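Good morning,

Both structures are done.
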Amino acid sequence: MLAFPEPDLGWLAWGALVPLLLSIEGLRPRQAFGVGYAAGLVAFGGLMRWIAVFGYPAWLLLSGGMALYMGVFAASARLLGPGRRTAALWSVPLCWVAVEALRSLGPLGFPWGLLGLTQHRSPLVLPVASVGGVLGLSALIAVANALLATTIGILIDARRTKRRDGTPDSPRYGGLVPVAGVAVLAAVLLVAGATLSPPVADRSVTAAAIQPNVSPRRALDGPAASSLLVELQGLTASAAAAGAELIVYPESAVPADLESNEELRRLIAGAARGAVVVAGAHLAGPRNGAVVIGPDGRILGTYAKRRLVPFGEAGLLPGVGSAPTETPVGSLGITVCYESAFFGDWASAARSGAGLLAVLTNDGWFGGSAGPPQHAAHSVLRAVETGRSVVRAANTGISMIVGPDGSIDRVLPLGASGVIVRAVPVGSRVTFHARAGWLLGPLALAGWLLLLACWAAAEIRRKGRSASALILAAALPAVPLVAERVLAPGPVGALPGPLTSVAMLAACVVTGSGHLFGRRGAAPGGVGAAALVALLVLAMRSAYAGQGFAVPLGPPDGDWILAGAHALLAGVATEAWLRGAVYGHAERIGGWVLGTATSTALGMLLHLGGPQELMFWHLITGAAFGLIRARSRDAVGLGPARGLGDAAVSALAGLR
């Protein structure tokens, strides 16, 4: 965590994984998972401590969820590289990049704190991102850590051998492989730093970023809104006077309906004196996005934020479509807030013709914490990956204009108000990363999953009866689930319907699952699950309260008895299936780790298509309930907590 902003000691990343790699050496995968999870709690807990501004439960929830990925990395690295020590030279980079790619995809995508981000200030290494992107940098760093850990391990082995028989016994590979690896890595970095350069631009545009420094907790209505609009027009005029052709406002900067207010658009265009203005504002829906205003005040295009912050943006709907907006200064790609962390979206924008990229954000919620500088660092990587200049406008900072090579010579720090202006090149030819290098993540993920599938196939052949029972138990609820989705289309709810619940219980009976009740009945597991759910619901409510929303926990129609009975029965059926039948058969194949992973994955698939919050909820509770099940041997006792917790989370659908 020290390698990230702040304190931004990027050089530490080149050895940051060594303690973890040495500590899991010789452990079984399930033991390695526990060590990796503990390391992940420390790493992500420190990295994202700024989340605590929304309450400590929210911080614990997110840190615990992200730590699961570190546990998966450690377990899979041991599983795929259990033989010779030098196997880590390929298994560690493969597993690390695959896991980073995994946490960057899908509805649960949260690519915050990718290892390659630590090099955003390194002129020697940063150019590699134009070829392999941030994951390419992560791969290089993972190789370096594996080389260092392997070298240390070889030296330790040699020393132990010498102590045992009194004569040095060099391993088969001696120090040749690590030394050769270090030499190759150093050569790659030197060549990259010396030869890789951003695509040559055809022309340049003078761009400006505006930073009004308005507290996000300040009520912007009536006189306050009018005052802010006057301030924005003044800053816009200052940017225009400095020669700006493109002016970018922060996220949600305009406290008015720009789409329908033609007079306001003309006032902004007048202050801009012919410049194109990208104004952060709320759109119809309601949606959070931007309105691109032409020199005559007409709307050139709009963009609505597609990736909403989980547990953070209540009352909003996600946008659709991300095509660049054509403007007099060129084709413009727009992202809002933490969308700047999603490298795949930026590569797609560059391939679609965007010659310039704009980031609109409001990091004022996080004050002077490490959140704003961590967020700002992503824009540097995105510029190098795409070969495009990036104009980043942040409400309270950090606003900056980044060149295609990652250079920054115009910055507005946290807490300042003003305008920065810089002439930047407009890209034409895209980088290798934007064309094909972005495939590194999917390819690593595919290779990782293929190797894990080969291991799973071998285990299934070895334990055929349990495997057949697992497949049958997992598949039985699928048919009624699909039928209910077809017969009653609409938003995906948190609780399964009656047909699916019956099928879940039938799966327990047909496959002969055991341990539906623990050694001491349902109480121990139920108490632990209830305490966990109470903590997580508190985290959910505190996160939304930080945004000014109160999460209703009761049923919308007020029928507490019927809603409570439905929640309890559905919860018991769900847990009897997931932590009873599915977990039990998977545990016989691969222990509690496979049991937890399989039951958690099926719980998430059960809610595929629902809100992000619902998917994330089942990731966290599924993993935690799996651990409770491993200790208590109880499944049914987890049911009431599951049902009531899911019912509470279903209130999020109403806020979306």
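Second structure follows.
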Amino acid sequence: MDKLFNRKYVIQGLFIVIALILLGTLFYIQVATDKYFISAESNVLRKIYSFPARGVIFDRHEKPLAQNEAVYDLMVIPNQVDTLLDTMALCKMIDIDMKRFERNFNKAKAQSRYQPSIFERQLSVHTYATLSEQLSRFPGFFVQSRTIRHYPDSVAAHFLGYIKEVTPKDIKNSGGYYRSGDYIGKSGVEKSYETLLRGERGVVRMMYDVKNVPKGSYAEGRFDTAAVSGDRLISSLDLKLQKLGEELMHNKVGSIVAIEPASGEILAFVSSPSYDPNLMVGRQQGNNYMSLLVAPNRPLNIRPIQGYYSPGSSFKPLDALIGLQEGVIDPNTTFNCPGYFRVGNHTVKCEHVDGNIALRKGLARSCNTYACYVFQKLLTQRKYANQRVAYDDWQKKVRKFGIGEKLGIDLPSEKAGRLYDAAYYSGKYSKYWNHGTIISLAIGQGEMDATPLQMANIMAIIANRGYYIKPHLVKAIGKNRVIKKEYVKKNYVDVDARHFDPVIDGMQDAVNAPWGTAIQSRIEGILMCGKTGTVQNPRGKNHSVFIGFAPRDNPKIAIAVIVENAGYGSTYAAPMASYIAEQYLKGSLPKNKLAQVEWMKKQVILPAPPKAKFKPKATPTDSAATKPATTPATLTRTEHTQPSATQTTVKPIQRTQ
């Protein structure tokens, strides 16, 4: 009997404990916390995400390059859509057809029946105003605001890049930040500084009534979080300089890169052909992207960091510096130029018969023979066991100047250029090769390619007398103007400072002496130092190249200009470089040069299109107006003084991307 009595109280006690637990849980859920209420699926409570404005991007003088403007996305929760919805009225309101309605709705259902998805993106302000008045007629639909990019000056597309909707891979790799329908930087600084530019997303827990009308934030907004705008970026670009560079390169293929030597800040970053960055914004972005993808001359290519060009004669100052450092030449070392250099079965021709010529005039005259002798002396030094060892040491010294190595610019997709080690040539030629086999490298041709950025950086190294700061496009981040530490460090190339002045003397004469090859780059009142190059191109007319810096003392700008299929470096690249440098150093171009500048802007230098099988008949629209303008009398050409690498018998493979 006692056992039954005890068992009764045990069972009663268990029921009491269970009841207390249930009551306590119910009290916690309903009174102590709103956590479960907020997380529950409900017809009256929705999470409305507020998207932060991306950080504004400025030029170096804080003029905006990329701003934001408001747009509105129409969202849908498929499970809440009324089966009797007036779809025709909604389609008319947002200007789509029934086929698109069904496609968008089915896509949203495939993502989730219970979570909001984008139904139609980027509605205009006018469409949003009309729709918001009638939104209560369409249960399951609501509007979410966000900002998109706007580019007020429509320049620097390759620098700025573009943003696109996230892919499943982006979502997976984001650590939970991105959701379907979000946007992410896909190229340019929009990509490389994405985590700073995007800001932090906010959320509003909005109450809706049975008629789909918003009634305000739940709990007076205590559980809401505000969006935090992205950091502002102050770029190193000079807007005026960038505009001038893009205008000069209009209807041409190539690149202009200008750097401030003392800081490594990139002043101009021109890739041509370019495009209006506003094309990569809005509802037509996808169509515009596909059009650019198949357009002639590949406007999406970022030539300053992806284009491969043989440096040509612009490589000669670098090799001379290595020769001086190694002690195989000094400023007074003289070689005889009979108009060519011959080694074994290879002959490299020179444009001139210079006779006995020393370093300074050799650089000013761009003497191929002098450059070949320097290269020969470097690779036949007795301190090396053989020329293969000597070559490996030489190419390592060249790499310190940036050729064959990525410079680490703050943009994605930078390429390293092309420079091979001795193992490559041993594999190609077995053990039977020497400096004669690769003599084209002496004049910057053969199996060597550099990007325009690398060429401009070499000029910054020479301007600084032996070091460079990593080239970069963003000089300050946020209100506190933070800059990455790697963009203030000096990188030395292991050439003594005393060796630079003899080379700079030659580059000064190339621009300013009567016999120089770059006299078209002269600037009145400013001592410009430079070097022209005429780069061999087996697929058409040679490329026009100029590299240089100004002024000679305390240089403010280093520059590289490449114009594809434009012939001599003195004809197009050198004048363009002088216009850019003068604009930057003086703040404007003199009136006596404005006609020359306008003439240059109008020139059309594009690769010839593939030959048609059948020649079309002339139409009445054909006229002389479509032909390039005549050179003004003030712009004389000096092609007869320009040494040409096309006359070398060593035929390199030229790749341009």
